[in-house]
């Protein structure tokens, strides 16, 4: 089973330019990955944002339904496991940092396809988890061990969720410190965007966990005892990430509620002060308004009228202010 494919140098150039690419890897006897020009038995076909032509060539060569390769490219696709005569499709949601987006992290679907002789992965982006495999950072990985790759991939995805959750928690602490110094809208928007990332994470982690638990109940791929232990470890890591996401979400929700209450209390305090000042100034204003009328008034011809009226106004204002202070309106 072979199809024509871009050479190694062309694939590397495409990686640098960020265009749609397809890599074909094969492990040597020592476990080192090497790129090969054609799909062969026991190879790993890795597609990143593939074109329709690439999808058609891979699907035709491996006898896969085109939907197996199209579905992971849909940003709204939910994690699931699907099996037919051509192979097994496993879709997981993986986290990734955004660039130029107010929301720091989002999730993206990744497809892992098991055929009889070839492993296929499909994603819209070249995620760091894949680069961990291609860089030789994952021990015990061989391209012919499709089940082991899938379980190791799940475990690493859970680790990335935990890593990004730690970063989100640090951002929350930083925004909280900024809010304590000032009540600007910018920090509130930062917290809202972090909350969006946590919502994406929580939703994805719950469905990922369901997919992994389904693999323990039904036979989608052959697993040995070591594989079953690795799957259980991956489920535990995914559950820990879900618990951490829930905790951070609850803490962030409580934090935003607390600051909303603080802001409302500050507004109420300002309104009380303004109301008290208005009442204090209303009495001198009333006296000045009365003596500003163009009608005969008591003591209007007295040389002491102005200082007496000013003294009375000041005394009444101070008395009113003192009464408000006793009532804790200031």
Automatic annotation (TrEMBL):
<dbReference type="InterPro" id="IPR047199">
    <property type="entry name" value="CorA-like"/>
</dbReference>
<dbReference type="Pfam" id="PF01544">
    <property type="entry name" value="CorA"/>
</dbReference>
<keyword id="KW-0472">Membrane</keyword>
<feature type="transmembrane region" description="Helical">
    <location>
        <begin position="304"/>
        <end position="325"/>
    </location>
</feature>
<protein>
    <recommendedName>
        <fullName>Magnesium and cobalt transport protein CorA</fullName>
    </recommendedName>
</protein>
<comment type="similarity">
    <text>Belongs to the CorA metal ion transporter (MIT) (TC 1.A.35) family.</text>
</comment>
<keyword id="KW-0812">Transmembrane</keyword>
<dbReference type="InterPro" id="IPR045863">
    <property type="entry name" value="CorA_TM1_TM2"/>
</dbReference>
<dbReference type="GO" id="GO:0016020">
    <property type="term" value="C:membrane"/>
</dbReference>
<keyword id="KW-1133">Transmembrane helix</keyword>
<dbReference type="InterPro" id="IPR002523">
    <property type="entry name" value="MgTranspt_CorA/ZnTranspt_ZntB"/>
</dbReference>
<dbReference type="GO" id="GO:0046873">
    <property type="term" value="F:metal ion transmembrane transporter activity"/>
</dbReference>
<feature type="transmembrane region" description="Helical">
    <location>
        <begin position="273"/>
        <end position="292"/>
    </location>
</feature>
<dbReference type="InterPro" id="IPR045861">
    <property type="entry name" value="CorA_cytoplasmic_dom"/>
</dbReference>
């Amino acid at each position: 089973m072979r199809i024509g494919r871009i050479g190694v140098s062309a694939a590397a150039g495409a990686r640098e330019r960020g265009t749609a690419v397809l890599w074909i890897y094969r492990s040597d006897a020592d476990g080192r990955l090497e790129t090969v020009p054609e799909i062969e038995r026991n190879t790993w076909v890795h597609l990143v944002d593939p074109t329709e032509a690439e999808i058609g060539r891979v699907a035709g060569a491996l006898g896969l339904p085109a939907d197996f390769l199209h579905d992971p490219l849909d940003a709204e696709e939910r994690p699931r496991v699907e099996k037919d005569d051509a192979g097994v499709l496993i879709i997981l949601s993986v986290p990734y940092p955004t660039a130029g987006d107010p929301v720091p992290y989002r999730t993206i679907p990744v497809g892992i396809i098991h055929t009889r002789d070839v492993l296929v992965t499909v994603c819209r982006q070249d995620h760091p988890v894949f680069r961990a495999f291609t860089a030789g950072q994952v021990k015990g990985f061989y391209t012919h061990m499709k089940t082991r790759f899938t379980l190791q991939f799940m475990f690493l995805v859970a680790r990335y969720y935990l890593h990004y959750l730690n970063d989100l928690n640090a951002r929350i602490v930083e925004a909280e410190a900024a809010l304590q110094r000032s009540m600007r809208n910018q920090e509130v928007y930062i917290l809202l965007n972090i909350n969006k990332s946590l919502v994406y994470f929580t939703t994805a982690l719950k469905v990922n966990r369901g997919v992994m638990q389904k693999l323990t109940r039904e036979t989608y791929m052959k697993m040995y005892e070591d594989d079953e232990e690795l799957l259980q470890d991956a489920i535990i890591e995914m559950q820990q990430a879900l618990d951490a996401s829930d905790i951070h979400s609850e803490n962030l929700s409580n934090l935003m509620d607390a600051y909303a209450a603080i802001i409302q209390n500050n507004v109420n305090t300002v309104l009380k002060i303004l109301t008290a000042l208005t009442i204090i100034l209303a009495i001198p204003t009333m006296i000045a308004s009365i003596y500003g009328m163009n009608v005969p008034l008591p003591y209007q011809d007295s040389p002491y009228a102005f200082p007496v009226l000013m003294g009375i106004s000041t005394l009444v204002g101070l008395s009113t202010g003192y009464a408000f202070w006793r009532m804790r309106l200031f």
